[in-house]
Amino acid sequence: MIRLPFLSRLLREAPSRLRRRLAAAGGLLLLALAAVPAAAQTAPAPLRFGILPLGGVFESRNDWDPLLADLSTAIGRPVAVLSVTSYEALEQAIQRGEVDMAFLSGKMALDAVTQRRMQVLAQVTRHDGLPGYRALLLSRKGSGLDSVQPVLEQPGRWRLARGESRSVSGFIVPQLQLFLPNRVAMETAFRDEIVGTHQATALAVANGEADIATNNTADFERLRTQFPREAQRLQVIWQSDLIPHAQVVMRGDYPPAFQAQVQSFLVAYARGKGPQADAQRAVLKSLHDLAGFVAADNRSLVPAARLAHQLALRNAAGAQFVNDAARQARLARIEAQFAEQLQVLETPAGARP
Fold this sequence. Notes:
It is a single chain. The chain contains 14 helices and 11 strands. By secondary structure, it is an alpha/beta fold. Helix 3 links the parallel strand 1 and strand 2. Helix 7 packs across helix 13 and helix 13 packs antiparallel against helix 14. The radius of gyration is 27 Å and the shape is globular.
C-alpha cells in the first residue's frame, strides 16, 4: 500500500510533465465525483405520505404500501411512507415540513389545512354507504357495565382506555357528546387511564387492563377480523352521531396540475373491472374496509370545524375564570378562531393568499 508521505515525495520529485498529468487526472476525478450528486438531484424527490396511527405502526405501513406503490407508478415518482406511533408525532412531522401528503381525520385534517396550508384532495367512502362512522364506548362482557349509566354516575370507580386528545372518535366526540354534557371530564374523572390507538384501547378492555374504552365502528369491525377472540369479549354500551369520514390532504404549494393528477388517481382507484381493480378493492378492504375515494375540497372539513368549536365552547362553559371579562374574552377568541377557520375552508384553493 502506498502511504501519503511517499506519494507527496513522488510528486515533488516527478518531472513537471508527469506532475501536470497527475494533476489533470485528479481534476477529472473531482469533476466526475461532483457530477454524481448533480445527476442524483435530477431524480424527483419522494412524495412523503403520512399515515394516522390507527393500528400498529408496521401494520398501517403494510396496509398502505400496495396503494402507494400504485400511486408511485401513476405519478412517476417514488412515494415514501411515514407511519408514526401517535397523533402528536404525525402532527409534529407536518409542522416540520416532513409530510407532503397525508391520510388525516377531523381536528388533525382541520389544523393541517387552516394552519399548515395543506389542501383536501379526497375523502374516503365505506361499503355501508353512510356518510360517516360512529364513536363507540366499549366494555367487557360480564363486567357489570352493560350500560353507560354506571360510568357517568361514578366515573372514579373505572379505568378508562381512550384515544389521544386529537382523535375525533377516541376523544373529541365522546367528550363532546357523552361526558361533558354529564359533567364528566375524561382527562381527570377516571380512576386510571390508558392513552393509545383504537386497537390498543379495545385490547386493553378485552384483556382486563381497563374497564371501558373509546373506539369507533370502523376500527371495531377491523378488530373483529384481526382479533376475533378478544373482540368476542367486548360489547358496545354507547355510540355517537355520525362523524364525517377521513380525508387525504396534500401540501398547498404543489402545482394544481399535480394535485389534480393525484386526486384523479385516488378517485379512479378500484373503480374499474378486471383483475387489477379486484386487487385494488382487496387493498381498500384491508384499509378499514374502505370502498374508495371521492373528490373533495377544504369545505369537507366544515363539520370538523363545527365539532372543534362546540368542544371549545363546552370546555369554556365548565372552566373557572377570574372574572366575567376573562370569560367573555375566552369566548370571543373561540368565535374568532371559528370564523377564521370557516373563511379558510370556504375560500377556493387558488384564491388563498
